[in-house]
Amino acid sequence: MPRTPPFDFSNPEDITSVDSILFHLSTLKSATSNFSEENKLGQGGFGSVFKGTLPDGREIAVKRLLSGSGQGLKELKNELVLVAKLEHRNLVRLLGVCLEAQEMMLVYEYVPNRSLDTILFDSAKSEQLDWGRRYNIISGIAGGLLYLHEDSQIKIIHRDLKASNILLDEEMNPKISDFGLARLFGGDQSGATTSLVVGTFGYMAPEYVMCGQYSAKSDIFSYGVLVLEILTGRKNTSFRDSEQAENLISYTWEHWIRGTISEILDPCLGDQWSRSEALRCIQIGLLCVQEDPANRPTMSMVVLILYSYSESLQSPSRPAYCARLSGGMDSDAFRKGYNLSTVQGSIPEIPCEDSVSEMEPR
After folding, report:
1. How is 38-65 classified by DSSP, letter by letter?
2. Known binding-site residue numbers for ATP
3. Would you please indicate which residues are annotated as catalytic (active-site) residues?
């Protein structure tokens, strides 16, 4: 069973120095049938996730770090320190940690419908996401991001918001997960710059891909891409070698300016969708993926728009990636941005304006 950690909580560098619960390795082995393949929910670059059941009947998800993964340890520590301080209905809840016999694991609440991408992009399952559920998912993710950016005791930039990091509970309510790449901002800090770009291309804002600059507006860009995916049922990478458009953003933009938005909505919706809500969501999505971060709305504004039908919206201009790709500029980096998965690497040597208030701490 969980036990109280006998460590010095005053040491901020100690991975155990958070208000969390330590689980015995034996408890987690028993809960997951010794981490059996039958209980494996998924696998990532730094480890696997297993479903388990505690003696009191609670279902859990156990993220087990691969042995010897230095970067994985860094991300686990980062996630533990940040998530332990957060509590919101649209964030996955951290229950504890196991640090025993050279094992390193995070223990979360189990979310039964797994990740959004497993349903949204599966033609056999996507009908489970009717219009009401999609609008609720879009609104719930917005609420979770608003909490991270503005309403929690600490300001957090997620940096890897994508469909596979949105989990769905038994009622299809969304919960943001995976804070391994998240960054904490303090005081009046509004942004930072890094020479090491990490995240998932296709969801990453242009200023981050090209210049390593990230802020709350970077998350908002990712949210915009995610909104368009939820509406269309199409991955942002599904336009590879397509004659329709370079990417999901440009595809949506072309239909927006033509007034043919009904043609981009997921066909499984049929005619069971709200035109006013669909217009509002597409407009939000396009505003969130504007090239200039200053032209993207804040999450408080997005939430207000989603819940207040009287709130007026500005018209979006030609969005990021779409503008560059159609403007005759060298678009190799941007095409890569829609053809690759999770990456980590140095940013290209491209001159950028310094538009953030602070540099990332070393």
Report:
1. GGEEEEETTEEEEEEE-TTS-EEEEEEE
2. 63
3. 160
- Yes or no: say if 23 and 96 are a contact pair by the CB < 8 Å rule: yes
- Each residue's pLDDT, cut to its tens digit, for the chain (362 residues) gives 554 443 333 343 455 555 457 899 999 999 999 999 999 998 876 789 999 999 999 999 999 987 765 556 777 777 777 777 789 999 999 898 898 888 889 999 999 999 999 999 999 999 999 999 999 999 999 999 999 999 988 889 999 999 999 999 999 999 999 888 888 887 677 788 887 888 888 999 999 999 999 999 999 999 999 999 999 999 987 776 566 677 999 999 999 999 999 999 999 999 999 999 999 999 999 999 999 999 999 999 999 999 887 667 789 999 988 744 444 333 444 444 444 344 454 444 334 544 333 323 32
The CA–CA distances, whole Å, from 159 to 115, 183, 212, 214 equal 17, 8, 11, 8
Residues at the binding site are 63
66 within 8 A of 75, measured Cβ to Cβ: no
Beta bridge partners of 70: none
Report d(CA 258, CA 45) in Å as an integer: 42
Cβ-contact 298, 326 below 8 angstroms: no
- Domains recognised in the chain with CATH numbers: 25-109 (3.30.200.20), 116-346 (1.10.510.10)
Alpha helices in the chain (DSSP H): 25-31, 70-83, 116-120, 131-146, 206-211, 216-232, 248-258, 275-288, 299-307, 322-326, 332-337
